[in-house]
Amino acid sequence: MDSNSEQIYMIEKIVSCLTYPTMGMVGFIWLLLGLFTKARLKPFVQFHICQSIFISIGFVLLSWVVSFLSNILSFIPLINTLVAQVTFYLNMPLLFGFSLIQVCIYGVLTYLGIAAFLGKYSYFPYVSEIIDANIGRK
């Protein structure tokens, strides 16, 4: 947090933190409340809400593309076995019943949520730069 920035209130930290594990829904509701009350959101809250929504949309699109490609590759002889094995190993329970993909996703969301709760601007490659450029923080 910059020394010349405004104070970040606890409710803003909580909303910024909760917007990551809910895939942007808490942040979207906060945006709607701000719209109805005509309140101006601070750049800190805008940054985290936009970043969580952007990451959520990116995750959905990426999962659709990977699913589409794995379905197409499953029709090709010899490659279908490899695709099935890779899919199995990435989705089998690994740690406390979570797969490798889930552990990575929840790890990233936990990092982003904790950084938001601590009042810091978290960094996610490419996404943070796009959000910074669009909200005019830098």
Description of the structure:
The radius of gyration is 19 Å and the shape is elongated. Helix 3 runs antiparallel to helix 6. It has 138 residues and is mainly alpha-helical. The model has no long low-confidence stretch (mean pLDDT 90). The chain has six helices and no strands. The protein has one domain. Helices cover 67% and strands 0% of the residues. The protein starts with 9 loop residues before the first helix and ends with a helix. The longest helix is centred in the middle third of the chain and has 31 residues.
Summarize this structure as a short list of keywords or feature phrases.
mainly alpha; 6 helices; elongated
Taking pLDDT < 50 over at least 5 consecutive residues as the criterion, the unreliable ranges are: none
Instruction: Give the overall shape.
Output: elongated
How much helical structure, as a percent, in the residues?
A: 55-70%
Major sheet summary line: none
Number of strands: 0
What count of domains describes the coordinates?
A: 1
Helix and strand content put the structural class at mainly alpha
User: What is the CA-CA span between the terminal residues?
Assistant: 13 Å
> Average pLDDT, to the nearest integer?
90
Question: What is the count of DSSP helices, taking H or I runs of 4+ residues?
Answer: 6
Order of helices and strands: HHHHHH
